[in-house]
Amino acid sequence: MKHTLYPWERAVQFDRGVLVGEVEPGQHKFPRHVVLHRVDLRPRTMTPAAQDVPTSDGVLVRVTVVVRWAVSSATTFVVASARPEDELYTAVQLALRSAVVTRAHSAVDPEREAVAAEVLATVAARAAELGVTVAEVAVRDVVMPGELRRAALAELVAAAEGRAALERARGETAALRSLLNAARLAEEHPALLELRALQTASTVVVDRPSRRS
């Protein structure tokens, strides 16, 4: 039988159930009793389902990661496990749980990069056993419980209101300071009051009565 393997593929060859080795890309012809297991070596992405992880202070935080991986050994990938992708999925979930459970809930989001690095380091050994190399782990989402999100929003609103009140107080203080300075000038220079009175009188406009047709 003829088999064609593309550049991104390898095949693991078995002859009557005995492992023979890997077959490189190209066109090959084998007897019927030879079985080939094709393996795609191209990088791929895994996004495990979000899981609720308890933090060190007892808060359930929902975290999602994205994992970029590829098969590094076609033979190991075929032989080591019946479902290697499922094994990698489980390893990532367990590593993520271990990285989050040691942190307080307030530290999980700010330390996304550190959490991702810990997951990558933890899962690397298991991935190698499966014939896989994990190139990158990134924390995509960190979702706090609804109560904490509402509390954080209330805190932001309170901070904004506090800043607005402070600005109003500063404005009132500046106005009072201006009035105080004016009073001191009037006390020290009484002539200023007379000038002010004359200025006010000169701006008064007397409306003329309108003519009736």
Automatic annotation (TrEMBL):
Span of domain Band: 3-156
Recorded coiled-coil stretches: none
One Pfam entry name: Band_7
InterPro entries: Band-7_stomatin-like, Band_7, Band_7/SPFH_dom_sf, Stomatin_HflK_fam
Protein family membership: Belongs to the band 7/mec-2 family.
Protein name (Swiss-Prot/TrEMBL): SPFH domain-containing protein
